[in-house]
Amino acid sequence: MENQVIQAILSRRSIRSFQPRPLEPQLLEQVLEAGTFAPTGRGAQSPVIVAVKNPQDRQAVQALNCQARGFSSDPYYGAPNILLVFTAASAHTGVEDASCVLATMMLAAHALGAASCWIHGEQEMFQLPEGKALLKKWGLPQDLRGVGSLAIGYAQGPAPEPKPRKADYFKIV
Prior knowledge:
Mean pLDDT: 97
Strand order of the largest sheet: 1-2-4-3
Radius of gyration: 16 Å
Largest sheet: 4 strands, antiparallel
Number of helices: 6
Order of helices and strands: HHEHEHEHHE
Helix content: 25-40%
Strand content: 15-25%
Shape: globular
Distance between the termini: 28 Å
C-alpha cells in the first residue's frame, strides 16, 4: 500500500516559474489552514501567516525583497500569491515554528495540486521602514520578525527531477 503523505514528500519540488492565475480561494484557505496545524514549540502557535493576494501589495512585497537583497528581478518567480510567515521576536522557538509552518504549507500546496518555492529575505525586509509600513498597513505588530515566505500558485511547466540524495544524508546508530 502506498502512503499518500510519503508520496507527497518524495514528489514535492520547488517551482520557479508560475502561471499568472492565482489560487482559488478555497484552495488557498486549505493551504493556510494546514499551516496552522504545523508543530510549534510548547504549542505556542507563535507564527503569523500573511497571504498576499492584492496585486499592489504583492508588488510592494516584491520591491521590498529586491531592495533588501539587492535583486532586480522578481524573487517570487511570477507567482501570483505570496505567503509570508512571521514570528514574535520574543518567541522561544519562533524561527523553528515558522519554518515548520512554511514546510507544512509547501506540502499541503503540492498535495492539492499547487506549486510553491521557499523564498528568503523576510528578516531583512521587515526591518526596513517600508517593511514596517506594510506591517502597519496590515494591522500587525511592528516587532514581528520575518522568517520566510512561499511563492505559491500553479506551475508553468513540469516539476524538475529530484537531485540524487547524498549517500551519507542520514546515519542509524
